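ok so i was messing around last nite and threw this chain in just to see what happens. nothing serious, just curious
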Amino acid sequence: MQPPTNHSPNVHVQPDSHVTFHYRLSDPEAGRVYLSTFEASPATLQLGAGQFAPGLERCLLALLEGQTKSYDLGPDDAFGPRNPELLQLVARKLIEAHADPTDPLELGDLLEFPTPDGGRFAGVFKGWEGDAALFDFNHPLAGQPLRFEVQMIGVL
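result:
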């Protein structure tokens, strides 16, 4: 006799589904784990609402509740290709307005900036060029191959 389950094996992910799942993003060759929910609380989101990278959302489509699957994604598939236009010079006075003056910027630091509509975006500090700082506003995993492992817990 099989133990009872809390999921229906016929419920699958659709483009507007609410889903709860565990996932792991890692380097498919080196095995380095970038992010994993398996050791913590699962993720919950609504597909199509912009809460998750579109390339990763596409992998979730049609998965069945209770299903586990692994995907090897090419460098441009998960978070898209790196965009050279997202390397931007930012004036020192803007940096001073948003950085902690007691903690000088170091290469690789992440700094958040406000948007006119009240949102926020983040960039990685790449160095000083005269009186401006070079920031990379690409997603840190853009343009990298990734292994995306998923365990679908619930689908609504």
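not much to say yet. Residues 84-136 form a domain with the Thrombin, subunit H fold (CATH 2.40.10.330).
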